[in-house]
Amino acid sequence: MLTVKQIEAAYWIATLGSFEAAARKLHTSQTAISKRIQELETGFGVPIFDRSRRTARLTAKGEEVVRLGRDLLDARNRIVDCLNGQEREARRLHFGITELTAQTWLPAFVQAMRARYPNVTLAPTVDTSVNLLGRLSDSSIELIVTPDFPQDAAIAKVPLQQVMNAWMCHPDLLDTSRLVPLAEIARYPLLTLGPMSFTSSAVIRWFEAHNVAPGDCMSSNSNVALCGLAVSGLGLAYLPLHYFHDLVDTGLLAVVRSTPRLPKIRYVAAYRNDGPTRFYDAVAQLARRCCDFSARSTSAQMRRPRGG
Among residues 16, 184, 251, 297, which one has the fewest Cβ atoms lying within 10 Å of its Cβ? Predict the structure, then answer.
C-alpha cells in the first residue's frame, strides 16, 4: 500500500541527493529510509532509483513519482499548517531572487504568498546568484531562487523551470541566417553576467566542454544592460530568449543559432535544512507553481532604459 512516508522519503532523497541526508532531514535512520523505498519499489514492481550509480539518481518513473509526490506533500503541509494555525502566524520572510525572476513572475509569487500567508511580511533581496547563495549559507537570507548549483547536504533544492538562453546581437554584427560554429562565436566580444552568476558559469563550462576558449568578455550584473550593449553592436549577449523576444521581433536584436546548441539553465528554490523547513518547503512549492519566465512584470517601455 502506498504511504505518504514512502513518497516523503523519495522526495527528500531526490532533493538532498542521498539516502543519508534524507534520513537526517526526516529524523530517522538510513535503514528506515531504505526500507520505505524498498517497500515502494517492491509494492509496484517499479524501480524508483537507479542503483547502478554511486549517487541517488531517479529513474524516469522515479522522476514522475517525485513530481506528482510534491503536490501530495504540499497538500499535506497545507492541511498541517491549517490545523496548526501557521497561516495566521505573523513573521517576516527574507528571500533572495535574481534579476530575471524580479522581471518576470515575482508579482504572481507575491500575490500567491499574500493570499496564503496574509500575516507574513515579504523582505526580498535582488542580487547575483553567487551572492545570494553566500547569504543563504550564512543564514542572512532564508530562501533563494537562482540557477541551479552543486548539491550541498545542508541545503534543500526544489527544481523550478528551465530557461532557454540564446546568443543575441545587432543584426549587422554577423550573418545570423546560418548556424554559427562555437569557435567563431568565441572570436566576438561576449557579453555575460560575469563571474558572480551561475548562468555565466554554466556557459563558460559549455565552452570548456567543447575545448573552445572564449576571447574578450564584457560583463554586467543586469540583463537589461547586456541587452543595451548588444543593441549597440558591441558584441554577442547571452540573454534569456523568451524575455527579449520582442526586441528580436522588432529587429533591434537577432538570435545567433550556434552549433552545438546552448544548454538550458535550470532554476531552483533553495533553503537551509536547519530552519522551519516545513514552511520553507511550502514556500518553495508555491514558487514552483508560480514560476513562469515567459511572464512580464513590467512593460517593454519600462524595461528599456531612458538614461540615468
Answer: 251
